Amino acid sequence: MAVDPSGTTLSAALSEVPDGPVVMLNLLRFAPDGRSSYEEYSHRAGRFLRKYGAELLYAGDGTTPLVAEDGQDWDAVLLVRYPSREAFGRMVADPGYQEITHLRARALSEAVLQPTVPWTSGRDA
Q1: How many CB atoms lie within 10 A of CB 114?
Q2: Residue 86 · residue 18 · CB < 8 Å
Q3: Which residues of 70-96 are buried (b: 16+ CB within 10 A; e: fewer)?
Q4: Full-model pTM
Q5: Burial of residue 101, with CB atoms counted within 10 A of its CB: 0-12 exposed, 13-18 middle, 19 or more buried
Q6: How far apart are CA 93 and CA 87, in angstroms?
Q7: Alpha-helical segments (H) within 16-121
Q8: pLDDT of 52-61, one tens digit each?
Q9: What is the residue extent of each domain of the chain?
């Protein structure tokens, strides 16, 4: 299963709606004994979030899902706000950040990394 964005998917995501902030949804499934590696990654990644103007909005553990098919539950959820898709792209391309990505890859058996944008005003909820 994929845990890091590929060049193709990253390029496509960065080319969409380039202006304005983006909130990245992170759905994480840890590999056996992967949580400690992810905690180390998170600790070291904080420096890069600050450098590129990003902010961790929420991090939490998943509990029993109310609506989900078998296998659709997640160990953890994170929401990270970036000032722009371009800032996210610069961060993941940073050589210093690249040096710590192995910690994230080793920690996860599966992940979803999905950019989101705010609904426009007037849209029905």
Answers
A1: 11
A2: yes
A3: eeeebbbebebbbebbebbbbbeeeee
A4: 0.83
A5: middle
A6: 10
A7: 35-51, 85-93, 95-98, 101-107
A8: 999 999 999 9
A9: 7-63+72-116
Distance CA 54, CA 84 (A): 9
User: 6: which 2 tokens?
Assistant: 């590929």
Q: Any idea which residue has 């590929």 for tokens? A: 6
Angle between helices 85-93 and 35-51 (to 10 degrees): 120
Q: What is the fold of 7-63+72-116?
A: Alpha-Beta Plaits (3.30.70)
CA atoms of 1 and 111, how far apart (whole Å): 8
pLDDT digits (tens, 9 = 90+) for 86-99: 999 999 999 999 99
pLDDT the model gives residue 107: 97
Looking at per-residue pLDDT, the higher value among 3 and 105 belongs to 105
> Positive or negative, the Cα torsion across 65, 35, 107, 112?
positive
Amino acid at 67: V
